[in-house]
């Protein structure tokens, strides 16, 4: 799993690219407080190499909590900036942009 951040000079936006390795998976999504935890809004596209990838524009100077859903299983980002207890028995990945 990986996160790439690209800060734009002309806008208060950071282009965040989410990439996950899940060669055996059929579908993957990323959801978090940036999309009100909508579990289907941000689907990652499956690449020929088996990875999944998507890019989302997020407002700079913010902190976001998120998780992946890979074939209906929740997963955290291994390279998250940090983790935060979610009160549901697990932690969420944290992204600072």
TrEMBL record:
It comes from the Bacteria. One of its GO terms (biological process) is signal transduction. The keyword Transcription does not apply. GO terms for cellular component: cytoplasm; nucleotide-activated protein kinase complex. CDD domains: E_set_Isoamylase_like_N (cd07184). Keywords: Hydrolase. GO terms for molecular function: hydrolase activity, hydrolyzing O-glycosyl compounds; protein kinase binding. Residues 15-83 form the Glycoside hydrolase family 13 N-terminal domain. It holds the Pfam family CBM_48. PANTHER family: 5'-AMP-ACTIVATED PROTEIN KINASE , BETA SUBUNIT (PTHR10343), AMPK1_CBM DOMAIN-CONTAINING PROTEIN (PTHR10343:SF91). This is Glycoside hydrolase. It comes from Mesohalobacter halotolerans.
């Amino acid at each position: 799993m990986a996160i790439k951040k690209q800060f734009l000079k002309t806008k208060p936006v950071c282009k965040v690219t989410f990439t996950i390795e899940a060669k055996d998976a059929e579908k993957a999504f990323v959801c978090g407080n940036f999309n009100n935890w909508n579990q289907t809004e941000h689907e990652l596209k499956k690449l020929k190499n088996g990875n999944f990838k998507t890019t989302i524009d997020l407002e700079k100077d913010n902190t976001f909590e998120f998780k992946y859903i890979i074939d209906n299983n929740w997963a955290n980002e291994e390279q998250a900036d940090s983790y935060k207890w979610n009160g549901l028995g697990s932690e969420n990945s944290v992204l600072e942009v």
